Amino acid sequence: MSQIIAVRELHKAYRRVKRRRGPLGAVRELFSPDYQTQDAVSRVSFTVSEGERVAIIGPNGAGKSTTLKMLSGVLQPTSGSAEVLGLTPSRQRRALAYGVGVVFGQRSQLWAELSARDAFLLLRRIYDQDADVFRRRLGELVERFGIANILDQPVRQLSLGQRMRCEITASLLHGPKLLFLDEPTIGLDITAKAAIRDFIREQSREAGQTVLLTSHDTRDIELVCERVIVINEGRIVVDQPVAELRRRFLSRKVITIQSATPTVTVDLPGVTRRASEAHTTILVVDTVRVRIEQVIAMALAQGGINDVTIEDPPMEEVIHEIYAAHASR
Questions:
Q1: Distance between CA atoms of 94 and 73, rounded to whole angstroms?
Q2: Nearest residue to 167 (alpha-carbon basis) of 54, 179, 133, 128
Q3: How would you list the strands of the sheet with 252-259, edge to edge?
Q4: What is the mean pLDDT of the chain?
Q5: In angstroms, how far is CA 45 from the centroid of its own chain?
Q6: Is the predicted pLDDT of residue 328 greater than 60, yes or no?
Q7: 297: which of 97, 307, 309, 314 lies 20 to 30 Å off by Cα?
Q8: Residues contacting residue 51 through CB under 8 Å, at least 6 positions apart
Q9: pTM reported for the whole predicted model
């Protein structure tokens, strides 16, 4: 597979005036400012291949959105290099725009006073699209996202969920090879989130579209992406497939036992009980200290077991474990 994104030692630093106390300090700031530099992204390197769906995650202020903005050409890096679709984003932003779609969940690319339909028609002119191709693609997206009944409403009157569906429609109208999504499901209800996740995943599989996504919602990561890049304090601390991330950072399994008796007792090292209901016992098992089959055997020995399920911990626990591991370094 060919590389869509190649990032080498990418660095973004902001220069700020160091604040001084008192009136005299304010005067000195005005005539003789003392600058201090803060790194937002500190020399990160990674590649993304065609068709990959990659999540960039990290705590607030880790540098996720800054990285995405440099890759889309919104920000110019302080040093290092980035190549996206064979172009340098900071110098060839106009050419790059034809090959990428961008959605920033906190900022709209649509015009508030225009209807969604008029905004889409304006975007068709901006991207100089063929009328028939545009009509067909818009029809497919409108049907997929169920926005036919809101096309003629002003964007300012749309709910957040309706607007985000329109935002993603707008980002896909010109048929981009690469999609940048910065918190695309923020503030949405469960139904809207599911529709957006399903579409992004299916679009990538069917059209070979590459996706780079930032999100604090672990379900976005689990249901959309195959690979996770974790950034902390501007540096990459983890870059692994989602499945491997689970295996590396959490050796625990969650076992749910449905029993005829009100509870099941498993007294083994490495086994802890979570809050359980009558006839339902939930155990967390550290597989480094005890084997799963030992736990199941002890439970079965007590008789009256109706069902047993074994699951990985929620992705949220995986991410928390990663942050905790690197915060202490």
A1: 9
A2: 179
A3: 271-273, 280-286, 252-259, 305-311
A4: 85
A5: 18
A6: no
A7: 314
A8: 1, 204, 208, 209, 210
A9: 0.76
